[in-house]
Structures are given as structure tokens and as C-alpha cells.
Amino acid sequence: MDNLQSKYNLKSPGVKRLMREAMELAEPTEEYHACPLEDNLFEWHFTVRGPPGTEFDGGLYHGRILLPTQYPMQPPNIILLTPNGRFEVNKKICLSISGYHPESWQPSWSIRTALLALIAFMPTPAAGTVGSLDYTPDERKTLARKSKNFVCHVCGSVTDKLAENKGHRLGGNTLTAEESTLLKQISLKGEEDNSRLQEKREEAAPTELVAESRPVDSEECVETVVRERLVHEENAVEEPLIDNHDSLLQVSIQRSNRDRVWSAVIWAIISMITLLVIRRFFFL
Amino acid sequence: MSEKLELSGEQTHQEGQINQDELILQQQRQIQQEISESTPLVGELELISSLNAEYSNDEIYMQKVKDLASKYKFIRRTRPDGNCFFRGFSYGYIEKLLSNKNEFKTFYTLAENSKSSLVELGFPQFTVEDFYDTFMEVLKRISDMPTLEDAKRELHQLFNEQGYSDYMVVYLRLLTSGQLQREKDFYSCFIEGNRTVIDFCHQEVEPMYKESDHIHIMAACSAMNTGVRVVYMDRGNSKQVTEHDLPEGSTPYVHLLYRPGHYDILYPN
Q1: Which residues make beta-bridge pairs with A132?
Q2: What is the pLDDT of residues A251-275, one digit of tens each?
Q3: What is the mean pLDDT of residues B34-45?
Q4: Chain A partners of B19 at a C-beta cutoff of 8 Å?
């Protein structure tokens, strides 16, 4: 924090606000924790606990929060890094009022609101919205179990990020009636924009590091490598998938990425064949 | 395999639609950016006749500008970003208050007490406090200036600093929302569609960049305990501009020029 204080213009209301929020959220709760990166007040990392009594129960989900320079006039973007089966990973999702325009973010909401909304929104049906995934409960449970092994290249292991779980419901005593009503109105939606590809490329480097820094004896490790390659490199699909007992998980991981990759590969092959045929006819 | 192909086909179709939306959004963003780069948040005083340049070939408007010039001397333009009413109104109101120490003091006390009533209505204390602190800081910095001229300069400077200026807008939006909710029985008859006052506040008042209507103006004036005269100028047939005092029957303290979709500040002769 001291480092940050010297770097930013503390007179700017936006910076002051983020400092206040960092202070408010400094102490981890049972459900969520978030803090700014050491060198960037406008990027935070967070961990949330999967809501109890749902298929995310027991899961720990880690991600990034990107704050626009105009924050809090404009909404924060949430990016989940832990595969969860509800939201795509490495993709911006943002808050709005359910069934209303995406620009209905309110400056009186905060990062805390965003995190509470994320937790509350996880068990809601994906219903085909952008950035949503519709995995089966079993797939999500498997992912929840595996989520504890996730290692962030900045924050390390996620297992000690939250306060001890005493099995309270979301918010415990700290959630006011108004907040609960508010949370019911908020929805999260993926942002479909051109920077998405760029975002993925940006992600590619650090996530490779994650895979490398993880213990080699774990089956998880290999899986992460495969998973990341599937997301970031199209040619990964041509490599045989590593033998894995958990075929369910494999299928689920690939589902969101494979169709697109396959069609690209098919089109590439078709155009190659067409080219070769044309060449044979006209040039030989 | 055929199933897979079908799936990917559907996906492309969906993406096509999304890209359309995205294009529109992108264009909107670009337009907004162009607007913000070309207009200051709150401009300098300009003569009413400067409006003529915008309507040089339009008889109806020229006539109305002439009528406007008989009642008003100056116009101060605001950035058309959807916040123009809130920004223009708060600027105009504070500027007017500066010339009367007692009225400024009364307003200062009203502002000081406003936070607790918002928190009572259920607004999140943590963030309301943030906006309130900045709102009060601005009022204090302006009132601490030794001369009226310095105070006006400080006001103008703060309202053109995006951070402070937007914070003023947010707090006034919150005060307006609070007023609507406190008197929801009265305001509910002005709300179109099947929405409650609270829905309306969440969707049309509290988010930034949402344009203001009569109902916003009435509630904002009640919250600040003042009145506004809105002077309408459009391509309607009458030769004169039309005036509306809000809330009805109040003494206008701030004068605003309304042209469809936008408010600027007016200064009477």
C-alpha cells in the first residue's frame, strides 16, 4: 500500500476511493478476499468461496478485477482464472441490473458488491448469455474439488486466501437487507469485444508460468498445460490428449473451446485440398 | 461429427449477432469520446448570440434565439454526456449561492445533513460517504476562497476536473434518488411503464450518463430546496421559447436552456 500511495495522485477521487476500498477489504472474510497488485492499484486479484449448498460448494475461485481509469463511474471487469463451469475463464464479465442495459452500473456499488454479486450469481442458470457456461452439476462439482489446487502466478496457492470457513451462509451477519435485495437484481455478463483475443494473448504468458511452477508429480499439472494450450493455441488440439481417468472433466474443459478450434482446422484442411486440386488442374 | 458441425454453425450465427451489437456499442463509444474531447465539462460564459452560429439557416430557431436574447444575456454550455442536467444545475446553483453568504450557509448545512438521510434510506454507507466527502470538500474549498472572483474560478476549475466533477454529479444523483424514494407516492404517477419508483431510481437516476427528465429535475430541486426555470427551445411553431418553472410555482433560482436531449446554463439579463 505504501508503494501505491507514492505512485498515484491521492487527490484524485477515483484513487482515493480505491485506497479506501483496499483498506475496507484488507481483512479476508470467509466468503471473499481481494487486494490490489503491489504495483498496480487498477488491477486486483480476488478469491471467492463457492456458495454452500450448491454445486460450487467447497470450491475456491480465483480471478482478476480490472478497474477502468474512470472507476467508479464505470464498472469493474471481473475475470475468473479458476475453471468453474459457470463462467468462461480469462474472459471479462461485468455487472449490470438484471435484464437491463449493461451500462446500468452504479457508482455507489463497489468491489465488495461485485464480489458478493459474483458469489450470488454463480448458481443461477447460464441461459446462453455471453461468457456463461452451462456445465452439468457433476462437472461443476469436479471442478470445485480441483479448484483448491489452483495456483496463481501472482498470489500463489489459493487455499489460505480466505478466513476459516465456519459454514455461514453468504454474507453472514454482515449483509444488510438492502444489500440482499440489491444482489438479487444484479446480473453478470460477459463482454464481447475485440480486445478479447488480445486479453487471451496477454494471459498466455503468465499462465504458462503457472503450469511450470507447479509440482510436477501432480496429474493436475499436466492437465493445466493441456487446458491452457487448448485455450491459447489452436494447434494444441492436434496433440493427443494425455490419458486421464477423469474423462468427464476432460470433456467439460474442451467443450467451450473445441468446436471453434475444430471448425478452424476443418476449414484449413478444406482450403488446402481445394488449393491442391486447383493447382493440379491448372498448372500441371 | 455432424452434430459438432451444427453446433459450430450455431455458434457462428450467434457471434455474428454479437458482433453487430459490439459494432454499435463501439460506434457509440467513439461518438462519446469525440464529444468529450471537443466540449469542456462546463464551458466559459458566451453571449446568447453565439447560438446563431448553430442555426444560421433555420428561420424558426433564429426567431427563438432572438426571443431568448431578449431575456437572457449569457449561456454556459455543458458537455452533452447525459449528465448535463446534474452538472449544469449544480454548477449554476452553487455559482448563484456564492453571491449570498447566508444562502450558501443554509445550503452547506443542508448538504452536511444529507448523508445520514441517504444511509437511512438504505444506500450503502461506505460509498455514499465517499461521494459525500468529496461533495463537501468541493463546497468547502470554494467557500474558503477570499474573494467572489477566486471562488468562481475555483468552482469552474473543480467542475472541469473529471474526478471532482463526476463526483458532484454522482452525489446529486444520489440526493435526487433519495428524494424520489422518500416521496414515492407522489412521484410514482410520473413514472411511465410498469416500474416502481425504486426500479426507476436504479435504472434511470443513479447510473451515470442517464439523461434527465422533468421528474429528475423536480426531485433534484426539492432535494436542494430550490427551483429551476427550464427554457424550451425546439422546432415547434411558436415564435417564442417556452418556460417551465420546476417544481411548479417555485421561484426560479437557476435557469437552464433545454434543447432536445441537452441542458445548458442561462444567465438572465
Answers
A1: A87
A2: 555 555 566 778 888 899 999 998 8
A3: 85
A4: 192
Q: A155, A171, A192: which is the final residue of a domain?
A: A192
Q: Which domain holds residue A107?
A: 2-192
Cβ pair A192:B21 closer than 8 A = yes
Taking 90 as the threshold, does the pLDDT of residue A63 lie above it?
Answer: yes
Q: Which residues of A are catalytic?
A: 94
Contact predicate B65/B56, CB 8 Å: no
Long-range contacts of A255-263 (CB under 8 A, 24+ apart): A255/A133, A255/A135, A256/A88, A256/A133, A257/A230, A257/A231, A258/A230, A259/B4, A259/B7, A259/B8, A259/B11, A260/B8, A260/B11, A261/A230, A261/A234, A261/A236, A261/A237, A262/A237, A262/B4, A262/B8, A263/B5, A263/B8, A263/B12
- Give pLDDT, residue B222: 95
Q: Are residues A175 and A209 in the same domain?
A: no
What is the per-residue pLDDT across A2-51, written as a single tens digit (0 to 9) for each?
Answer: 666 677 887 888 899 999 999 999 999 989 999 999 999 999 999 999 99
* Interface confidence: ipTM more than 0.90: no
Q: Which amino acid is at B96?
A: K
Hey, are the CB atoms on A107 and B206 less than 8 Å from each other?
A: yes
Share of chain B above pLDDT 70, in %: 92
Q: For residue A99, give the chain B residue with the closest CA.
A: B203
- Write down which residue in A192, A215, A230 finishes a domain: A192
What CA–CA distances, in Å, run from A164 to A63, A161, A169, B176?
A: 20, 9, 13, 42
Q: Answer whether residue A153 is part of any domain.
A: yes
For chain A, say whether B124 makes contact (Cβ under 8 Å).
yes
Mean pLDDT taken over chain B: 89
- Which residue on chain B is closest to A261 by alpha carbon? B8
Cβ distance of B130 and A17 shorter than 8 Å: yes
